[in-house]
Design goal:
Layout (H helix, E strand, L loop, with lengths): L52 E6 L4 E6 L5 H12 L8 E5 L3 E4 L28 E4 L12 E4 L12 E7 L1 H5 L13 E6 L37
Antiparallel strand pairs: 1-2, 1-8, 2-7, 3-4, 4-6, 5-6, 5-7
């Protein structure tokens, strides 16, 4: 199952996301179920605690601090805590990064089709907006398909509001998010070196060790990679 953005054709990559189709019209006998919408969310977060602090040490040089919102999206926040403490996110890449839009990661396959061994989660759509630094759960076409993948919003994209589960926001280190390598996929993707929950006494940020220089020059491949003929965000 491919996990990505599925709501507006101009926002989606056909190779990394399934196009969203509108739900069938409800009949009088069987009204269509409404998507789960959490209680009205305040843009102002409650007092931060170490248990609700998600830290991502990135290979581009620094630590990103994200305040989680269990008051708004309790199941997704608990999933983040569980997978982080299992070290699931350590070493994973940001596999889909669109300049001026968002950076998506959390896929063990690195191509947008993977997830954890845990079951998918029900939608926890809420009123937290897709402003710069918002962190939300990526999903496939089905609304209840969020699992491990997430994205960080680079520039406001309010058209996504109430269609994806926003569960946190960057409170420090946004410059490192801006520095994540762009591409679908990036040629040299930025990695999550380590992910931590603040309550677990994480060590200070440590940069990735420098790669050993190659003894042989890399081969030059003939031709160029074809440009994906898919729509991009406007």
């Amino acid at each position: 199952m491919r996990l990505s953005f599925c709501l507006v054709p101009c926002l989606l990559s056909a190779t990394l996301a399934a196009a969203q189709t509108p739900p069938p019209a409800a009949t009088p006998a069987e009204p269509a179920p409404a998507p789960a919408v959490a209680k009205a969310a305040s843009v102002i977060a409650p007092a931060a605690s170490a248990e609700n602090l998600w830290l991502l040490d990135l290979s581009d040089g620094g630590r990103v601090s994200i305040q989680l919102r269990p008051d708004i999206a309790p199941q997704m926040v608990e999933r983040i805590r569980t997978l982080t403490r299992q070290r699931f996110y350590d070493g994973l890449t940001f596999h889909r990064v669109i300049d001026g839009f968002m950076a998506q990661g959390g896929d063990p396959k690195g191509d947008g089709t993977g997830g954890s061994q845990l079951p998918d989660l029900p939608a926890e759509f809420n009123t937290l907006p897709h402003v710069r630094g918002a962190v939300a759960a990526a999903r496939a076409e089905k609304e209840n398909s969020a699992n491990s993948q997430f994205y960080i919003v680079l520039q406001p994209r309010l058209s996504l509001d109430k269609k994806y589960t926003v569960f946190g926001r960057v409170i420090d280190g946004m410059a490192y998010v801006d520095g994540i390598e762009k591409g679908e996929p990036p040629a040299n993707p930025t990695r999550i070196l380590h992910a931590y929950i603040g309550a677990d006494n994480p060590p200070p940020y440590q940069a990735a060790p420098a790669a050993a220089p190659s003894q042989e020059p890399a081969p030059t491949l003939p031709g160029t990679r074809p440009k994906a003929s898919t729509p991009q965000p406007r």
